[in-house]
Amino acid sequence: MLKSVFKTFQKQGAVEIQVDPDETDPNVLKKKVEIKKNRNVEKDYIIEEVIGNGRFGEVHKCTERSTSKPFAAKYVATSCENDKENVCSEIAIMKKLKHPRLLQLYDAYFFRNTYVLILELITGGELFDRVIDESFDLTEAKCEKFMREICEGIEYIHSQNVIHLDLKPENILCLTRTGYRIKIIDFGLSRYCAPDLRVMFGTPEFVSPEVLAYESIGPPADMWSVGVICYVLLSGLSPFMGDNDGETYSNIAKVSYSFEFPEFDEISADARDFVRRLLQKDAKSRLTASQCLRHSWLKDPEASTHQGHVCKRRLKSWVYRRKWHKAFNAIIALIRMGGKLNETDATKDTGTSSNKTGAPNTAETSSNIGNPEEPSKTEKSNTGTPSSTEKLGTETPSNNEKSNTGTPSNTEKSTDGTPSSTEKLSRNENTKNQTPEHQATPNIK
């Protein structure tokens, strides 16, 4: 599984072991984690500067005192039992997922109602940020390498009876800034497979049709997201994005997408077939992660002859749109939070009980600024924490709750990947001006 994990060299007559920076430290993979309750994390780690933040709290860089190794310390404050259950579920899943393509949990603490998760420190940044860099020559062959890495991680996740449920470009990081190794992060929404598992959360552009329909889901829900990620990586276009969330959901429900754009002119038939076999309405018809690795497009990426170039201009526009969208939602959330705080201050001045006026506590604030408009930082950290800008929701609804797939698109599209001439014109104009819409999804928490 691992190639060249160790590099050995002679020093002063002794053989020392050095971990290849393009691989995961085997000691991290072997580490058994148990939550250390009522123990201050600072007894074992030197807590340093903040490197990320979000609705969950802050992430600090830290150094293990006993080994001097750097890690990331993610602080998660809990104010109720539900918060604790969510964090414990994330910890339990991460403890189970020991694979070099996945972000690893190294330690965990609970002290004074706050969980601290010690995670691998990933310095390579987001995959899409790396590939749009001017110095990176993005070809289809390089996309093959990255997609194989992603599918290897997903194959392992599914082999452990777990579904990720929030696969998107922001949750795929590069291990380093030079290699091709990736890390899949963010297991906050992950679930164990169950016979009748139904959820109502995800990220609009990447969520599968069965999630929108509130039907039973399984590993194929992740494979749909892999197909969308691959389509975007190869073209810089979003296959289902409409002018608003309702239109996006309608396009997903109808599996309405196309390859008939100039951005696919240099992309091989193998790559298109790979995407097409993932973006299937029938979940059972989609490729599994194992089948993806055996597909002709990914079978041997090192020997790939597909040297067509990806349209980086379009991909840059897509990445910047996503970042602008996050920043916009964060501002809206802060404005709403400010209104709540002002209301609380006014209540104090008039002597009214804060309990009666709904003064925001931790849980209440999370609900009011929550999905899909909760704050998040523009850059994704390596914390494994859900990006909070584009979720459909974070709670599983009752069995009688149905999704709203939105208003049908004004432009009807075919489901065989071939648009009409009218659709092509509409789609090209739409992708040239892909600007984010404020998310307001009815009937979805």
Describe this structure in words.
It is a single chain. This protein is an alpha+beta fold and 445 residues long. It folds into two domains: 26-119, Phosphorylase Kinase, domain 1; 124-334 and 369-445, Orthogonal Bundle (Transferase(Phosphotransferase), domain 1). It is built from 13 helices and twelve strands. A six-stranded mixed sheet has the order 3-7-8-6-5-4, covered by helices on one side. A two-stranded antiparallel sheet has the order 1-2. A hairpin with a 2-residue loop joins β1 and β2 (14-19). α6 runs antiparallel to α8 (269-276) and α6 (220-235) packs across α10. The model is unreliable at 1-18, 346-381, 383-390 and 393-445 (pLDDT under 50). Residues 45-298 form the Protein kinase domain.
CATH class of the largest domain: Mainly Alpha
In CATH terms, the superfamily of the largest domain is: Transferase(Phosphotransferase) domain 1
Q: Can you list the strand order of the major beta sheet?
A: 3-7-8-6-5-4
Please tell me the overall pLDDT.
78
What's the total count of β strands? 12
The first-to-last residue Cα distance is 40 Å
Shape: globular
Number of helices: 13
CATH architecture name of the largest domain = Orthogonal Bundle
Strand content: 5-15%
Radius of gyration: 22 Å
Order of helices and strands: EEHEEEEHEEHHEEEEHHHHHHHHH
What would you call the structural class?
A: alpha+beta
**Domain unit count:** 2
CATH T-level fold name of the largest domain: Transferase(Phosphotransferase), domain 1
As residue ranges, the low-confidence spans are 1-18, 346-381, 383-390, 393-445
Helical percent range?
25-40%
Largest sheet: 6 strands, mixed
InterPro entries: Kinase-like_dom_sf, Prot_kinase_dom, Protein_kinase_ATP_BS, Ser/Thr_kinase_AS
Keywords: ATP-binding, Kinase, Nucleotide-binding, Serine/threonine-protein kinase, Transferase
GO biological process, one term: positive regulation of apoptotic process
GO molecular function, one term: protein serine/threonine kinase activity
